[in-house]
From TrEMBL:
Primary localization class, coarse: membrane
Originating species: Planococcus wigleyi
Highest taxon of source: Bacteria
Annotated compartments: Cell membrane
Signal peptide region: none
Positions of transmembrane segments: 7-28, 48-67, 87-108, 137-158, 189-209, 221-239, 251-277, 312-330, 342-367, 399-424, 436-456, 462-482
NCBIfam families cross-referenced by the UniProt entry: bcct
Keyword Hydrolase in record: no
Residue ranges, annotated region (Disordered): 497-518
Official protein name in the record: BCCT family transporter
Record keywords, A-Z: Cell membrane, Membrane, Transmembrane, Transmembrane helix, Transport
Membership in a protein family: Belongs to the BCCT transporter (TC 2.A.15) family.
Membrane topology annotation: Multi-pass membrane protein
């Protein structure tokens, strides 16, 4: 590790803040949880509208920029081509973006909405099942990925086309300037938000793994077990991160996507296949027709807290994740055009997510509606059991449950592996080959903050942490949108291939004419 990287103020400040939070959470877990809860209530009550508006505007902006004349510009030189094959690229996006979270919520969310409806209607009815699927599609659809795509687009454009450091502060220079204090503050905030967002995902995955071990092997849902899972996971992603981006992360991403497809195909065939396809089609239609109303839905005329507990939590979680996922998506998307990047990121991972929810959530809904299996009630009692309650009504229960536990573990390792790489890069001046020691430091701190949050309050503490850390970064996202608008307007749209060929032909003809005249 060179001295320049070690003395980076971003590394020193962000690592110190996270370490202080770890110590406070470990020494005063009750007080830590109380303070976090107070901040949670303040944030949701006063700034929920800001999260919803920001994400909606970002989504519209990305669609417009992709369809505009700037869509053909590449994230790199005009001659660059994609670094990774399409399947590997999608696997990396999916694994880093929300693989473990989707496995957790793929059954838990629709069954939660089925048990307690978003609009206060009668629960556990065919109508409530339809609303549950449509809202689940919305939460895992385009909006969440638009946040990742914006950060990835700006960083990738600056890093590969303009040869600038892949840092959030660099993306905001056209708006906020380049003073060291401002840049270091922005990057430190991005790192802290990232760590809290990743800790949320790791904690959710650990809770679900513990739930799976309880369902399959009767192992208690207890903090010591969860701590043991974190230790094993830390060892695995530390080992993987040492192999580099093109080996460990790429291999694990392909394994994740392949294993996820195996599980999904099995449930699709073994479950109510026709019902799954029908509910997918109907939910997709409901998602599209309700997109604007769901995107801007709040409850100012009623004292409900459903939107705060679901939509605002998801958007805050995505925003907290966005510095990491955006930087990682940028890193693996070199050579792709803006249009290809935006459409790929906004369409393919959300489509896979919606299909996953239709297969797993749809199967659970069908069994509850038609055979009274009580999965929704069991999920209401313990969210971590959702996926495994569904496997209980299908054949090969034990085998599928073990494969699901393995999938959750590999997703967590991939996410943590990717995160250590990005965090190390963000704290070593945007280096594409950050020091291994930095990866280890961030690996330790991520594992520690996840453990502390589980110790301080479990699922509620995890949700609270991501939401609080996301609020200041939401402001930066809005500024980033403004910044990219200023940057891209200075860029000349690429010449279409046919025009370029015509130009070359005319130049060749002119050269030949000069030769004949001479």
């Amino acid at each position: 590790m060179d001295r320049k990287s070690l003395g980076n103020p971003v590394f020193i400040v962000s690592a110190t803040v996270i370490l202080i939070l770890v110590v406070l959470g470990a020494v005063m877990p009750v007080r830590f949880g109380d303070v976090a809860g107070t901040l949670f209530n303040f944030t949701t009550l006063n700034f929920g509208w800001f999260y919803l508006l920001a994400v909606f505007i970002i989504t519209l902006f990305l669609i417009i920029i992709a369809l505009s004349k700037y869509g053909g510009i590449r994230l790199g030189a005009d001659s660059d081509r994609p670094e990774f094959p399409f399947f590997t690229w999608i696997g990396m996006l999916f694994s880093a973006g929300f693989g473990a979270g989707l496995v957790f919520w793929g059954v838990a969310e629709p069954m939660s909405h089925f048990f307690t409806t978003p609009f206060g209607d009668e629960a556990q009815t065919p109508e409530s099942a339809r609303i549950a699927m449509g809202y689940s599609f919305f939460h895992w659809g385009v909006s969440q990925w638009s946040v990742f795509a914006l950060v990835g687009l700006v960083i990738g454009f600056l890093q590969f086309r303009k040869k600038k450091p892949g840092l959030v502060s660099t993306a905001l220079e056209p708006v906020l300037g380049g003073k060291p204090l401002v840049k270091h503050s922005i990057d430190s905030l991005a790192v802290i938000a990232t760590v809290m967002g990743i800790a949320t995902s790791l904690g959710l995955g650990v809770l679900q793994m513990n739930g799976g071990l309880n369902a399959v092997f009767g192992i208690d849902n207890a903090f010591p077990i969860q701590l043991g899972i974190i230790v094993v996971m830390f060892a695995a992603y530390t080992l993987s991160s040492s192999t580099g981006l093109k080996k460990g992360i790429a291999y694990l991403s392909n394994l994740n996507l392949g294993l996820a497809l195996v599980l999904m195909v099995f449930v699709f065939i073994a479950g109510p296949t026709v019902f799954i396809m029908e509910t997918f089609t109907l939910a997709l239609g409901d998602y599209i027709t309700s997109f604007v109303s769901y995107s801007l839905r709040l409850q100012p005329y009623a004292n409900g807290d459903w939107v705060e507990g679901w939509t605002i939590f998801y958007w805050a979680w995505a925003i907290a994740w966005s510095p990491f996922v955006g930087a990682f998506v940028a890193r693996v998307s070199r050579g792709r055009t803006i249009r290809e990047f935006v459409m790929g990121v906004l369409v393919i991972p959300p489509a896979i997510a919606c299909l996953w929810i239709a297969v797993f959530g749809g199967t659970a809904l069908w069994y509850d509606l038609n055979q009274g299996t009580g999965i929704a009630e069991a999920v209401d009692n313990d969210l971590t059991s959702a996926l495994f309650q569904t496997f209980d009504v299908l054949p090969l229960t034990t085998i599928m449950s073990i494969l699901a536990i393995l999938l959750i573990f590999t997703f967590l390792v991939t996410s943590a592996d990717s995160a250590t790489y990005i965090l190390a890069s963000m704290t070593s001046y945007g280096s594409l080959n950050p020091p291994t020691a930095f990866k280890i430091v961030w690996g330790v701190l991520m594992a520690a903050i996840a453990a502390v949050l589980l110790y301080a309050g479990g699922l509620e503490a995890l949700q609270t942490a991501s939401l609080i850390s996301a609020l200041p970064f939401t402001v930066l996202l809005v500024l980033m949108l403004w910044s990219f608008t200023k940057i891209i307007r200075r860029e000349s749209p690429p010449i279409k291939e046919s025009e370029l060929q015509r130009f070359k032909r005319m130049e060749q003809e002119s050269r030949e004419q000069r030769n004949r005249n001479s």
